[in-house]
Amino acid sequence: MNSLLSMTGFATVQMEYNSSEVTCEIRSLNSRYLEISVRLPKILADLENTIKEVAREKITRGKLMYALNFSSLNNELQNMKINPETVKSYKNLLGQMNEAAGLDSEIKLDHLLFFKDIISFEEDSVIDEEIMSFIRNITATTLDRLNEMRAQEGDHLKKDIMERLNKISKINNQIIGLSKDNPKIEFEKLYNRLLGMLKEDKIDKTRLEQELALIADKVDITEETVRMKSHIELFQKNLQAGSPIGKKLNFILQEMNRETNTMSNKSTIIDISHKIVTLKEEIEKVREQIQNIE
After folding, report:
1. CB of 126 within 8 A of CB of 77?
2. Rounded to 5 degrees, what angle do the CA atoms 277, 282, 286 make?
């Protein structure tokens, strides 16, 4: 049986690579789709798609925020370089400005440092099969740890949802019991009301009974309660199947909401109306919970 996974979680893994401490962190949040944002050292930017491929193998839904840090990357992999020709050009430009302004100011290094492009960072390419394999490994390990946390949270969600489904089923059964007399009660109410308004010997009682029977049938919620029971059973079955299942559960819940709305519109018994209100409240609580399920 697959685990039910929450879409929220956090995991971090530390490993060593060529005497450098490497930290991989992944945080996941709710999302209708799979969204992956990757933060890497600039020199490893070309590995973004590789990391996303690994993530897609293990995650189907949620917003992932991925970060990879090398403790010694800046010192070992980046070299600061001066652009001599650019420095000369800016020095000449400052000299021309002096001359144009009629000044005789000394041009100092501080003046040249205002121009940011006189210094550049030359990075050596370090992406080879070895580091690519290492990053795949640390990424997959962190994702596995993230899924462990998401599974733990998913177990809590599953337990809570199952309890609420049992409550919904119990309320629905109570409504079934109360609703058996709903058409009969409505028929009697309408029939007695009309008899009180008209003289009994001046109406076609057979036709009246037919019309009232049709009206009473409109308040019969038997079909809705039966479908509700079916939806609950389908929900429970899919919940046991495990993730990814969040979207399907949401669709089933929409059908459950539709049945409760129809019941509410058709029912004329106050006790049933109260039960339906409680039913809607529990369904809404389940809806909130499944927004967090992958």
Report:
1. yes
2. 145
Other C-beta atoms closer than 10 Å to the C-beta of 282 total 19
* β partners of residue 6: 293
Question: Among 290, 56, 15, 9, which Cα is nearest to 161's?
Answer: 290
Structure tokens at 276: 């339906």
Considering Cα of 185, then 190, then 194, then 200, what sign does the dihedral take? negative
pLDDT in tens, 117-136: 776 655 555 567 888 999 99
Does residue 226 contact residue 255 with C-beta atoms inside 8 Å?
no
User: What is the crossing angle of helices 222-241 and 129-179, to 10°?
Assistant: 160
Closest residue by Cα to residue 143 from 245, 37, 36, 25: 25
Q: Which helix (H) or strand (E) holds 101?
A: none
So where are the chain's domains? Answer: 9-75+125-150, 77-123, 154-290
For 99-134, letters b (16+ CB in 10 Å) and e give: eeeeeeeeeeeeeeeebeebeeeeeeeeeeeebeee
User: Can you tell me the distance from the alpha carbon of 74 to that of 44, in angstroms, rounded to the nearest whole number?
Assistant: 12
CATH class of 9-75+125-150: alpha beta
Q: Which CATH class is domain 154-290?
A: mainly alpha
- Mean pLDDT lowest for which of 108-112, 142-146, 200-204, 233-237? 200-204
DSSP-H helix ranges across the chain: 48-58, 73-77, 84-100, 109-112, 129-179, 182-197, 205-217, 222-241, 246-266, 270-290
pLDDT digit string, tens, across residues 158-181: 999 999 999 999 999 998 888 777
> Is the bond preceding residue 244 a cis peptide, omega within 30 degrees?
yes
Q: Is 16 exposed, middle or buried (0-12, 13-18, 19+ CB in 10 A)?
A: exposed
Lowest mean pLDDT among 51-60, 163-172, 219-228: 219-228
